Amino acid sequence: MVPRTRFTVLAVPLILVLAGCDLSVGNLTERATEEWTRSYPLAAGGEIRIGNTNGRVEVEGVDGSTVEIKAEKIARSATGAGAKELLPRITIKEDIQPDRVTVETEKMSGIMIGAAFEVRYHVRAPRGAVVNVTTTNGGIGLTALSGKVIAHTTNGGVTAKELTGGIEARSTNGGVSIDFAQLGTERVSARTTNGGVTIMLPGSAKADVTARCTNGGIIVSPDLTLAVTEQSRRRLEGRLNGGGTSIDLQTTNGGVRIKPRQPAEKAE
């Protein structure tokens, strides 16, 4: 009788856990949210680092020397009580220096069944700051930045608009689209595994262009003055308006498009 009693005591909690969990993310209809906001001064030429696990990150360049970060924490579960219980476990770590602001979503310990979470960041950053963004499951949006940008995502795309500085964009599953208001001297690099790469340049931009793809085509708009130095089905090299800034574009499964920038109203 004793062994049987022990088995019953251990089995009941297991049944309760399984009964309260729905493995289908589509059935996590209840959610709880919390807003997290911070403001930090940043020295000229300083760096902003955002590390996220699940969720989109958007960085907008603005005038001034202050970094403003608004993060929306979102917890999902099959029940409202489950979502509220999960919300306090979503934590954001800060490491603040005069010349560097680092904010990171901490990884959650334990196995999560029947629940999910994400954090969505919106950052207003000094235009000339160095911006370094990494996220695992979510896209990255960048607007009006003139400093060097590093944007890496695993499951999501990278979209950049009105840039005037260099960028290193990487995506595993998602496209990369970069629009330059003005092309500077800093190197431009865009790579993705599953997705297309599109770059939009002012007609007067001077660049040395290299484009490569494994499964897909390379298309250069005839409206751009590109002198091709090497061309094959999967590779293209050329000088735009005589050459200048290094531009390296690469995709495994997807095409590469190089085209002139359109006025903002037409792009919209």
Provide structural commentary.
There is one protein chain. Helices cover about 10% and strands about 55% of the residues. The protein is mainly beta and about 270 residues long. The chain has a domain at about 140-268. A hairpin with a 2-residue loop joins strand 5 and strand 6. The longest helix is centred in the N-terminal third of the chain and has 18 residues, at about 1-20. It is globular.
Summarize the model shown.
This protein is mainly beta.
Search tags:
mainly beta, 21 strands, 11-stranded mixed sheet, 268 residues, 10-stranded mixed sheet
List how many beta strands DSSP finds: 21
Number of helices: 3
Order of helices and strands: HEEEEHEEEEEEEEEEEEEEEEEH
Quick one: overall form? Answer: globular
Strand order of the largest sheet: 5-6-2-8-10-12-14-20-16-19-18
Describe the main β-sheet briefly.
11 strands, mixed
Termini distance? Answer: 74 Å
Helix content: 10-25%
Structural class: mainly beta
Cα Rg: 23 Å
Which band does the percent of strand residues land in?
over 45%
Overall mean pLDDT: 88
- Uncertain residue segments: 1-25
Q: How would you summarize the topology of this molecule?
A:
Elements: H1 2-19, E1 30-41, E2 47-54, E3 57-62, E4 66-77, H2 80-86, E5 92-97, E6 100-105, E7 115-126, E8 130-137, E9 140-143, E10 149-155, E11 158-163, E12 167-173, E13 176-180, E14 188-194, E15 197-201, E16 207-215, E17 218-220, E18 226-231, E19 235-240, E20 245-253, E21 256-260, H3 264-267
Parallel strand pairs: 2-6, 2-8, 3-7, 3-9, 8-10, 9-11, 10-12, 11-13, 12-14, 13-15, 14-20, 15-21, 16-20, 17-21
Antiparallel strand pairs: 1-4, 4-7, 5-6, 16-19, 18-19
